[in-house]
Amino acid sequence: MLTTTCLNLSLPILGNRTMANLDPPQNPLPNDDLNRHDDPLSIPEPRKSQQAELFETEPPPWELTVQDDVATAKIVFSEAPFGPYDYRIPDEDRDRVKPGMRVRVPLGRRRQPMTGWCIETHLGQVQRSGKLRDIVEILDEEPLCDAHLVRLVSWISHYYQTPMGQVFDTLIPSSVRANAGTRERTYLTPCTGKSDEKAIDSLPKKQQVALRFLIAAGRPMTASELMVHAECTRGPISALQSKGFLEVAVRREMTTGMPMRWAQGDGEEQQTHVLSSEQTTALQRIDAAIDSGKGKTLLLHGVTGSGKTEVYIKAIEHVVRFGRGAIVMVPEISLTPQTRGRFERRFDSVAVLHSQMTPAERHFQWQRIRRGEVQVVVGPRSAVFAPLPRLGLIVIDEEHDASFKQDTQPRYHARKVAHARAMSLGVPLILGSATPSMESWHATATGHAELITMNDRINQRPMPNVELVDLRVRDDRTRGAISRQLHQAVQETLTENGQVILLLNRRGFATTIQCPSCGHVVACPDCDMPLTHHRDGGKAVCHYCDYTIATPPWCPACRYDGIRYGGLGTQKLEVEVKARFPNAKVARMDSDTMRRPGSHQRVLSSFRSGELNILLGTQMIAKGLDFPNVLLVGVINADSALHFPDFRAAERTFQLVTQVAGRTGRGDRGGRVVVQTFSPEHPAIQAASRHDYLQFANDEMVNRRKFNYPPLGSVARIIIRGIVEEVTEAVAEQLLSRLEAARLALGVEVRLLGPAPPPISKLRGKYRFHILLQATEAAILGNTIRRATDSFTIPDKDDVQYVVDIDPMDML
Ligand SMILES: Nc1ncnc2c1ncn2[C@@H]1O[C@H](COP(=O)(O)OP(=O)(O)OP(=O)(O)O)[C@@H](O)[C@H]1O
Ligand SMILES: [Zn+2]
């Protein structure tokens, strides 16, 4: 009974298939999420060596030969077979091959050598049958990852159960691997032994001029440069080259300079601030952690508008003073000109990474970072891998944000990776948020993180007053999306020349297209999800796979001429807002209007300058924006995330409402918030309306404890997908039996749920099933899954794949 409730409440497991060991584990132990103070990159139970003989079966011991003094390298690949495999390093390359470099090696019966990553080198005896194959080419002059990052790769590979080669490919951007924006240039220098006067005098005139010029220049030159300076053709230079007067060296160089188009701010001009007393205390504690030279996690819980950014900047200044650098991670959406400007104004060399960079720009920045020319790297989750040679501090702003988890392999969480990286380097990790994740909050309760609180806004500004509008009360509802109260509040704000932010977390115009006559809902053929009607161009779009058709004018099923667009998206809201407030200037911000590079910057600059009166949009507008003239925030529907089949639904709702509410009252003119909801009594919405994080966190922890959900226990998820539903399900069942066997063999308590279809049961034409695993600790889940999937292969003809998601952030 208990279990059924739990399933309906929180885990989207449907049906009542195999559910073994249903009772939640007793006496939950804190999981070791932010825990390890010993070496965080150590891997508790090393994977048994996967060195396999590719051509023969294991020979008997007496056939093994011992070879002395052989240099070998372990190589991994990003495609199957993943390795690692041993290769011999040719004698002349012994000093060149290092871990973190790419090499090309023969593999199996492939004709072309394969590119792989060196993870280890070894000099000495090898014992094996037959000859090791040789490395045929070394692709990098310098390792792309230093030894520390190679260990981080190995840790991520182990924890997230992803082959090391694939982790390398995630760590090192493809633009770097492809040398984007570079070309090879050939440089000439005079050959030292040959350039005596007598020899030169005996050369033809033009050759003499060219060679003398090169000697006088005292630096290498390309042939074309020399041709210009010595006023000659290529002939004399080629002649010098063939006579051995010139030495030739090939260098790879950037073709682009520093990209400039992002170097502008958004008009904000503030410089440094005198810290408030709360900021001062926070900074002292962070500086103490920096000075201690030990790894430590600090959670900076500061209400919206408490000035967390200034604390990060001052802490980074402290680190930079010692010649070290810092990484600051922010949600991709917050990579606004405002954030960039704040860092660029305060440091000499900042590298801002964002998704709209060209490959050449990305490569350019990466090289600068690696050469140690950058003090601060600001970027989204992938910035956790920035190769700063002297990293002194990692900051994650808005650490609760879901975008820090990657939703493709390796499904890493930047917070977890940052923690591992910081602890192994012995540097502090600062997590900042007004609404910390339950994971980080729990870490402070168990002593794994130090809590620093900032309760007040800068200049003692009050938190904005939040008014809840109950949408169930008929009087409050008007015909559209905006209630009487919200309409009035907008009107008053506009009269006072204040600005308004309206949040609606659904893009598009109408979220369902349904026939009122036969009930048919227009859905995506590949995902089975309803299509959203977009007004621009009359398109119906699948928000899961981007499948797009022209919106049908009549019902495709019964031909009824009067199909209805139901549900509310930001486009429809925009139409309503413009109709209600015809004199206001309105802009919409969602991923549809923000496609082009720089569109963020344009909208936000004109909002700051006061040109715009109303900004409406999806969660994009809920984060980090700091505009003093926003006097009103309206939330159109606070419940949109509340009824998701996910144990984090309440947490997400609380975060979203609190964050967007925090966008107002940031200037001297105060601010107010109107939140429309169908469940005003829900604890998450109640707590958000009072800005009461502690209340929320305490309530929520009680709920999590009931079912040992994270952060009190650990969860993993295996998604199985395939073209044929029955075959996919059969593979899922097979996997479940293996998991049951693994659990038994390891003697561990793991709760297994499923396989069952998740809420998105079909995606991009593939059927999906998932299995959920729960235990007190992530390590138990990791070991169980590794044991179950070790040597588990699915026949190619089945065309079924599975992915393992450790600490999943969504259950869809
Ligand atoms: N000591 C200070 N004195 C005056 N103004 C300050 C001080 N510190 C920060 N500010 C200003 O206060 C405003 C809010 O700061 P900031 O944007 O860093 O808040 P925050 O804590 O990150 O809020 P949120 O969580 O909402 O993003 C900014 O305009 C910032 O320039
Ligand atoms: Zn689709």
TrEMBL record:
Single GO molecular function: ATP hydrolysis activity
Name of the protein in question: Replication restart protein PriA
EC assignment: 5.6.2.4
Manner of cofactor binding, per the entry note: Binds 2 zinc ions per subunit.
UniProt entry keywords in alphabetical sequence: ATP-binding, DNA replication, DNA-binding, Helicase, Hydrolase, Isomerase, Metal-binding, Nucleotide-binding, Primosome, Zinc
Description of how the protein assembles with itself and partners: Component of the replication restart primosome.
Binding locations of Zn(2+) 2: 524, 527, 542, 545
Species name: Novipirellula artificiosorum
